[in-house]
Amino acid sequence: MPMLDATIKMTVPPEKRKEVLQTLKAILVLIRREQGCISCNCYVDVENENIIFFNEEWDTSEDLNTHLRSVHFSILIGAMKLLNNEPEIRFNMIASTAGAEAVKAARPREAENLQNY
């Protein structure tokens, strides 16, 4: 069964950055406890500290849909209302994944240097 990946990219006004980050940090652990949540993380772009990525991974579309109707997602919507521009929201279905073995297969001559990955 495919996993679902939900990503929200937000460009936060500098004067609202602290408030948005505090809100996101507060709901991370709550979302992680929801049924079907595989992971939930928040990242700041290293080239632009006002760009924030909020990423969630879900077991099933039912779990994601339940989350989208949750109080926790309502809090996230409230944080997004502080933005000047509409956030970019993407939902991706992931049918398969690969790790370091894919790099080793693509770069066999350097594979011995990747042993620690």
Question: What's the gist of this structure?
Answer:
The protein contains four helices and four strands. The chain is an alpha+beta fold and 117 residues long. The model has no long low-confidence stretch (mean pLDDT 92).
Topology:
Blueprint (H helix, E strand, L loop, with lengths): L2 E9 L5 H16 L4 E8 L6 E8 L2 H8 L2 H10 L7 E7 L5 H7 L11
Antiparallel strand pairs: 1-3, 1-4, 2-3
Structure description:
It is a single chain. Strand 2 and strand 3 form a beta hairpin. The chain contains 4 helices and 4 strands. The longest helix is centred in the N-terminal third of the chain and has 16 residues, at 17-32. The protein is globular. The model has no long low-confidence stretch (mean pLDDT 92). The chain has a 4-stranded antiparallel β-sheet. With 117 residues, the chain is of the alpha+beta class. It has a single domain (3-114), classed as Alpha-Beta Plaits. The chain has helices spanning 17-32, 61-68, 71-80, 100-106, and strands at residues 3-11, 37-44, 51-58, 88-94.
